Amino acid sequence: xxxxxxxxxxxxxxxxxxxxxxxxxxxxxxxxxxxxxxxxxxxxxxxxxxxxxxxxxxxxxxxxxxxxxxxxxxxxxxxxxxxxxxxxxxxxxxxxxxxxxxxxxxxxxxxxxxxxxxxxxxxxxxxxxxxxxxxxxxxxxxxxxxxxxxxxxxxxxxxxxxxxxxxxxxxxxxxxxxxxxxxxxxxxxxxxxxxxxxxxxxxxxxxxxxxxxxxxxxxxxxxxxxxxxxxxxxxxxxxxxxxxxxxxxxxxxxxxxxxxxxxxxxxxxxxxxxxxxxxxxxxxxxxxxxxxxxxxxxxxxxxxxxxxxxxxxxxxxxxxxxxxxxxxxxxxxxxxxxxxxxxxxxxxxxxxxxxxxxxxxxxxxxxxxxxxxxxxxxxxxxxxxxxxxxxxxxxxxxxxxxxxxxxx
Length: 408
Hints:
This protein has helices at residues 40-49, 66-75, 90-99, 128-141, 183-192, 195-200, 204-212, 231-245, 257-272, 287-290, 306-319, 341-358, 376-396; strands at 11-16, 34-35, 38-39, 54-61, 81-85, 115-118, 143-149, 155-157, 163-166, 173-182, 217-220, 248-252, 276-280, 295-300, 327-335, 363-371, 405-407. The protein is α/β, with parallel strands linked by helices.
């Protein structure tokens, strides 16, 4: 990526995550709410951890959340994270995070960064390109922050509940996260700020201006910077992640003429629906493709390909490929007149038993049966139905549907 080489200085992140999340109306703080088998905060951490020029991430949590957070770090192999206890307010928690680079009672101190990025633990969608802009602007100006246009007009009311005045929306912007600072600028600001600021302040950029004399460079951010605030936002976040996971797949055709012909039809249908496909006769000796793909469609005319599925699963388990995101395997059983009912039942039982076993490892193995027809109209209809089922399984990633036989 252009610009990475410009980051020739140390960069770290502070994620305040000590809030109670009252507005979601859920008993669990929103940063610890789970979807796709992971808490929300793990997705946010991953966003920063996969960026090579970010060296460390300080996660600030409430005292009662420290042990659960350490468990999350261990379970999902977050290697850049240090967990510290926060304060009673957002600003106190951020200051605790900054102090982890200077003084620490919770393990060794971290190297003091040149630039520190402050971000919300409940904003999982921020890309490297925008973080690079924030980081370089902070290095140059001392402070930088994301902004977005106001969606609604801001008004002031009288004590009696009547309109007092409104602000001209075109002159104002919404302050968002992430925000970047020279470490010394923001640390000095927190050292100098008042008790009132600690208790009631909300804007880090204002502290840098008031107590360090640093005016932040403001950068308009993308629409994806939104914050998970309400319960419905959790569903939206899950939907966005599922959509990003369903854009591509590996189609394993098998070597028989019937499976190759079905694969060709399925490929045409899926690609017309904007899914990118890698097409292979088999997956053996292709671990590189295995480990960069989250979705697999395997066409089989008998249970012979089950051993190949088991080999795939073994690779996923050994490499922890399904640790962060569920891996989907859609096993398509093409039924012809050649197989006996007993043979079919044995094969289907085996694949369904495997489905239940691998689900514990975040591998979702679905079974779809399609009956071959010599009548073109019926066959085309079945293939279209198979396309719809396959798309839906990959997109929805519903663990409830594993271990069952779906009929196309």
